[in-house]
Specification:
Elements (H helix, E strand, L loop, with lengths): L3 H26 L9 H10 L4 E6 L9 E7 L2 E7 L5 H13 L1 E4 L2 E8 L2 E4 L7 H9 L3
Antiparallel strand pairs: 1-2, 2-3, 3-6, 4-5, 5-6
């Protein structure tokens, strides 16, 4: 026979386990860790989202102290995309600062950026297809 005290104890344990499971699932669903993805994956994702990617070419990542970079032409305008390796503490701190600031400087000129996990994009703010580009970039996981 189960006593009221034992029943309360089991209910308390079950509630604690349920809350822990919910927390783990919720936090993992909100994780922006897309470090395992590549610049090629991003351009493929843009195409899947209905954007016409006209060309993709590598660019020098050292300009923003990134791991890799590309220029992607969409709608006749170039977008700069930089990937940081968040497995490296120095790059993880750098992308965190960029995300907090919301902009970067290149040759003394200030550019607004979008940040999604390990990726930084330049050029979307003034692009005619800004809404579609932002939506595609933010859904890249």
């Amino acid at each position: 026979m189960v006593t009221t005290t034992k029943l309360r104890k089991y209910s308390s344990v079950a509630l604690t386990v349920a809350l822990l499971l919910f927390s783990v699932l919720f936090l993992s669903a909100c994780d922006k860790n897309n470090n395992h993805l590549t610049l090629g994956n991003l351009s493929d994702h843009f195409v899947k989202c209905g954007l016409k990617v006209e060309s993709v070419q590598p660019v020098e990542p050292a300009v923003l102290k990134a791991s890799s970079a590309m220029a992607m032409t969409v709608g006749g305008r170039e977008l700069g995309v930089y990937k940081y390796d968040t497995g490296l503490e120095v790059q993880k701190k750098r992308i965190s600062r960029i995300e907090d600031d919301g902009f970067i400087y290149i040759v003394g000129l200030k550019y607004p950026v979008l940040v999604n996990g390990s990726f930084v994009m330049i050029g979307a703010h003034s692009h005619p297809q800004k809404t579609e580009i932002v939506k595609a970039f933010n859904s890249f996981k």
